[in-house]
Design goal:
With 260 residues, this protein is α/β, with parallel strands linked by helices. The protein has six helices and twelve strands. The strands form four sheets. Strands 7-8-9-10-11-12 form a six-stranded mixed β-sheet, with helices on both faces. It has a two-stranded antiparallel sheet with strand order 1-2. Strand 11 (233-237) and strand 12 (242-245) form a beta hairpin. The radius of gyration is 20 Å and the shape is globular. The two termini are 24 Å apart.
Length: 260
């Protein structure tokens, strides 16, 4: 058995993964990359990087403890804007104990929200306050903050025409009227079962995946993705496209935490 301490969490992991997915891996000087020049209509060269610049803003709360300080340092080193991360005096940073089964790589989590429960938007009616007072292109949320706060954030963003993405983890009841404020809903089978009031055992096979995706599409979600572990993922959209994407083959799973 092994024990490790990693200051990151769902919000931090999501922020870093989003940044990395939005930027090419740095290459050697002279190699073809995002920094190549391309001709514009008037013949001048334009830096592609300037047109593809993606900034990720992290919003949340940490405690005034060592974990909180290390988390902020790591996020900054990963080029995440942490101007929206507040320090809560006298509170501990949220923590989660993850137990990983060596035999099959599946995990179980025990979490303590700590400072997470203290977070709310700086301006309740603003979506710009989440992105350095600029209008964001996408708001990504999970449910490790109070549910009512997350519902308010998603509804505010939707009213302003900003796309939203919700990973409903840890899964908890959401009011049915919220779903039409969710552009992208990404969840695993357990979360889908809890949100729809069904048993996760019922969500096995392509017909079951299609049925649960249709359930959330009828509630108003535009795009639904079910993460299926070693089975890959199933997706469905309000426009009628749907299908299954197989997982990358021949991958030895060591720890599934964060893989969904």
């Amino acid at each position: 058995s092994q024990l490790g301490q990693f200051p990151r969490g769902k919000g931090g992991n999501t922020a870093v993964a989003t940044y990395r997915a939005s930027h090419n891996k740095p290459r050697d000087e002279g190699a073809s990359s995002i920094h190549a020049k391309t001709p514009t209509k008037n013949g001048e060269e334009e830096d592609i990087a300037s047109r593809r610049q993606v900034q990720v803003y992290m919003n949340g709360c940490v405690g005034d403890d060592e974990f909180g300080r290390e988390l902020r340092t790591q996020l900054e080193a990963s080029k995440i804007d942490i101007s929206g991360v507040r320090v809560v005096p006298g509170e501990k940073t949220g923590a989660c104990v993850v137990l990983v089964e060596i035999a099959h790589g599946e995990s179980r989590n025990i979490g303590h929200p700590g400072a997470n429960n203290a977070w709310s938007p700086r301006v309740a009616s603003s979506v710009e306050c989440l992105a350095g007072d600029q209008r964001p292109d996408l708001v990504i949320a999970h449910l490790e903050h109070p549910r009512e706060i997350i519902e308010q954030v998603l509804q505010t963003a939707s009213r302003r025409g900003v796309e939203t993405l919700l990973n409903p983890s840890p899964a908890t009841y959401l009011v049915s009227g919220l779903y039409n404020s969710i552009t992208h809903l990404i969840m695993n089978e357990t979360e889908a079962a809890e949100l729809s009031g069904q048993s996760s055992e019922e969500y096995k096979g392509i017909e079951a995946w299609e049925r649960v995706a249709d359930h959330f599409l009828r509630l108003g979600v535009e795009n639904v993705v079910l993460t299926l572990g070693k089975e890959g993922a199933y997706y469905a959209t309000a426009e009628g496209t749907k299908g299954k994407i197989n997982a990358v083959p021949n991958v030895k799973v060591v720890d599934s935490t964060g893989a969904g």
